[in-house]
Here is the input.
Amino acid sequence: MVYSMKIWQSISLITWLLAPFSLLFWLVSKVRVWLYRKNLLKSYRSPVPVVIVGNISVGGNGKTPVVVWLVEQLQQRGVKVGVISRGYGAKASNFPQLVSLDSFAEQIGDEPLLIHQRTSAPVAISPNRQQSIELLLNQYPLDIIIADDGLQHYALQRDIEWVVVDGKRRFGNGFVLPAGGLRELPSRLEQVQAVICNGGIAKSGEHLMTLSPDMAVNLKTGERKSLSTFPQAVAMAGIGYPPRFFTMLTNLGINLTACYSFADHQPYSFAQLAPLATDLPLLMTEKDAVKCRAFAQENWWFAPVSAHFSEKSTACLLAPILALVEKKQYE
Here is the structure.
């Protein structure tokens, strides 16, 4: 995946060789969307509003921190929120399934577990989003559903769509899969209610999001301390774009003697990670940590990050959602 993402950032001979397949991918996608719009393919309308937080490109754009931020913001305003996720990489034997604090990332997916641990919001996973929504509404009196990913899952009707864009990589070479890393063309952004720019420089109409680390948390003991107390460390990241995590740590003044990149959603084992750092602390992302707690060592730490928006963007992003919830409550 990392190698593919490098190719997708520029146009080369490989790009043109794959271009016919990208054209086919684009045509199939357009036909599929048309079939849903004409009701020739069935779609599901939730009895409560649905907000989708997704992206148009492959790879880590910072979608999960946005979901966590949105859930927390709504909870602070008294809104009862539930979250649905496909549960990418989940090996559960049955779907849909509720996520609990006792769940294992290998069974229900790393991102759903992270969201539940951070927000305590009810989270359900299933490739069938309708099943997840029905399970949540059967168990909880919810005002709204947040869909973690699923922008291209047109079998689920939605009230609001947010797209998260990497502010530095943007849209790569501009091609859809497989010649490029796009699932849909940038023109799709004209149809969504909000475009969130993760880092870099936000373009006109976009909402700039910054990600900042809270503290370092010890996987084994739960101890919390400032990242500034780590003069040297080894870092690892199994996310969509690992360099973002490494850059964040070095910008904090941490001397990283080694950086290890893993595939997004990759499962881990003690034998695999133990050799990475012996004398030095091992720093990882929160997403990695949910998969490593069972065999964590005393010098393993994770750095949870939080999303931040300007006061203006916060008000602009939340206003339509709160209006939807209020309208639904008075129906």
Observations:
- The mean pLDDT is 93.
- The first helix runs from residue 2 to 7.
- The two ends are 47 Å apart (CA to CA).
- DSSP finds ten helices and 15 strands in the chain.
